[in-house]
Design goal:
With 587 residues, the chain is an alpha+beta fold. It contains 23 helices and 16 strands. 38% of the residues lie in helices and 11% in strands. The chain has a five-stranded antiparallel sheet, sandwiched between helices. A three-stranded antiparallel sheet has the order 1-2-3, with no helix packed on it. A two-stranded antiparallel sheet has the order 4-10. Helix 2 packs across helix 5. The chain is globular and about 80 Å long.
Length: 587
């Protein structure tokens, strides 16, 4: 009650001051919830689900919610009545990790059957979870220690850690919130609980029946956003009974899973050749080379860039391989959607295409590949990956050879802030969306983003400069077959660059897989049924300290006949590295 409803024990089921305060915040453009615990219970248990879901009936829903909350409070008077109300609330909340109800959550996360055995820190964690059970899910935020222990790092950049500590700090600073626990905890005890380690119980593999588990978690997040955006809880999702039509192509998902496993788990095996046969891939030379390169995890996404439909999604290798879990390999963590990773040189095309679109450069523009100090105060002097200088280089060649010095010189022309804004329009998200911290090294991919979003950005290039975003969900119906939200229809969200600019960049990136033009990446040429080379783009990237190795590419768009035959306009992104951010060896 100290965090969700400070006046719970004395209010009439509603909090008029909270409603007025939330209304003023909404006028200022900072919308937030103002529902009491009783109102949340009424919304979840008593109101018509269609009314709750309909964004055009919000005022009607709020009025009925208030009336019913007052009636519930009248029907259950006094402290005993309030205890019954909050008991119902705690027993029907969703707490993440497949746990419905407070006791199920205590058992799931901490292995505790008796709620009296919970520590103060654990109590505060459980109190904070219902606000956002998917993103606050303790297992999803956990990492694996060297001894196999599952724990959540005590870092307030982890949202659930910040929420727990904020609850405890509010209780310490506002003793009037301790209605039923007056005198039980001192201020020092409350503040000390903010330092309490978050150790989780060993997790049973209860979800082994899930196909594409990382995809399902990502789908669930999107589902909550589409059904209950801005709400404290999402009863439509938590009560079940929905039919979800997803974008997943399970055949492609299986292909993605086995190749991610081939690049990460296979090289660590005692007999990698036998393991390759077990998972159904040919044992190739590059797998042998990975055996001693400290690469422990990987991820892959494939989507249709014309429709935005994600057709394959592997957030980490071997989701169920807890037997191999380590700080370097955390199979449950979704690197694609939750990991902040540097795209490295895979960012360079977005700097160059911005210049092409602005008319300040062309594919034939000449850049001097000569070591240059760009900021005398900081001494920023980028070097190429091989420490060589090549003199005059056309843009096309500079991209093909992924040279750093020409890319930074192009960044001077295009402007850091402008390229940063364009990258966001392409589909990338950044930890600080308002301003880049990287400076001129932005073009070298030093600003962290989600690998999934970089794939969206490359898909935007493939789609002639038009971003359509992404989705895991095509349709949502209730148990009666009624659509809860309009079925998904692909729609342009932004025309970021002209078709001409996108075409030029696509032509440059496509030459990377042509052995006649690029002897390095030409080895990755795609061939058709007759052995003919198929056009395909590719751009790789390596972070500053070799923490992240990425590759992104797309093929030409399919036509209507091809789409009818099951083809996609594919963009694919792949990442390998270590879950804890430790560097891999590159040679």
């Amino acid at each position: 009650t100290s965090t969700e409803d400070r006046s719970f024990w004395t209010n009439t089921g509603v909090d008029p001051l909270a409603i007025v305060s939330a209304g003023l915040d909404a006028i200022r453009g900072n919308e937030r919830g103002a529902s009491t615990i009783t109102q949340q219970l009424v919304r979840q248990r008593l109101l018509d689900p269609e009314l709750v879901r309909d964004p055009d009936r919000t005022i009607e829903r709020k009025i009925k919610e208030i009336i019913q909350s007052v009636r519930v409070t009248d029907a259950y008077p006094g402290e005993d009545g309030k205890r019954q109300i909050i008991t119902a609330y705690l027993n029907q909340n969703y707490y993440g990790n497949g746990s419905y109800g407070i006791k199920a959550a205590a058992r799931s996360y901490f292995g505790i059957e008796d709620l009296d055995e919970l520590s103060l820190g654990q109590v505060a964690l459980l109190a904070g979870l219902p606000q956002s059970p998917s993103s606050y899910d303790l297992v999803r935020n956990a990492v694996v220690a060297d001894d196999g222990t599952l724990y959540v790092p005590l870092n307030e950049r982890v949202p659930i850690v910040f929420r727990r500590n904020e609850i405890l700090r509010q209780m310490a600073d506002n003793p009037e919130r301790l209605i039923l626990t007056q005198g039980r905890y001192s201020r020092a005890e409350l503040l000390a609980a903010t330092e309490e380690p978050i150790i989780l119980a060993p997790q049973e593999p209860e979800l082994r029946q899930w196909l594409a588990p990382h995809f399902i978690w990502a789908l669930r997040d999107e589902l909550a956003t589409r059904l209950c955006a801005g709400e404290e809880t999402c009863p439509e999702l938590e009560q079940g009974g929905l039919r979800i039509y997803s974008s997943l192509d399970y055949n492609l998902q299986q292909v993605a899973e086995k190749w991610v496993e081939a690049a990460t788990i296979l090289p660590q095996q005692a007999d990698p050749e036998a393991y390759a046969a077990e998972i159904g891939v040919p044992y190739e030379r590059w797998m042998r080379r990975l055996q001693n390169l400290e690469v422990n995890n990987g991820a892959m996404i494939a989507m249709d860039y014309q429709t935005g439909e994600i057709v394959a999604y592997v957030g980490s290798a071997g989701y169920y391989r807890d037997d191999l879990a380590s700080p370097q390999f955390q199979p449950q963590f979704d690197v694609l959607g939750d990991g902040w990773r540097q795209p490295g040189s895979a960012f360079k095309p977005f700097n160059y295409v911005t210049g092409i679109n602005d008319g300040t450069m062309t594919a034939a523009s000449m850049f001097m590949d000569v070591t240059t100090t760009f900021d005398n105060s900081s001494g920023y002097t980028p070097k190429n990956y091989d420490l060589l200088e090549r003199g005059p280089m056309r843009m096309r060649s500079a991209i093909q050879w992924s040279l750093n010095v020409p890319a930074v010189k192009a960044q001077v022309i295009t402007g850091v802030d402008h390229v940063f804004q364009q990258a966001q329009r392409f589909g990338m998200t950044f930890q600080n969306p308002d301003r880049p911290s990287a400076g001129l090294s932005l073009t070298l991919g030093t600003e962290v983003t989600h690998p999934r979003d970089v794939a969206v950005a490359f898909g935007t290039l493939g789609n002639a400069g038009v971003r359509v975003g992404y989705t895991q969900i095509l349709r949502i119906t209730d148990s009666g077959g009624t659509d809860l939200v309009p079925p998904y229809v692909p729609a342009p969200q932004d025309t970021v660059v002209s078709p001409q600019a996108a075409y030029v960049m696509t032509d440059i990136l496509e030459s990377n897989t042509d052995p006649n033009q690029n002897p390095i990446w030409g080895d990755f040429a795609l061939t058709g049924p007759n052995g003919d080379r198929r056009p395909a783009t590719i751009k790789t990237g390596t972070s500053q300290d070799a923490n992240d190795l990425v590759a992104f590419g797309y093929i030409p768009p399919t036509d209507d006949a091809g789409r009818q035959g099951g083809e996609y306009s594919l963009v694919v992104g792949a990442w390998v590295g270590n879950s804890d951010g430790s560097p891999v060896l590159t040679e």
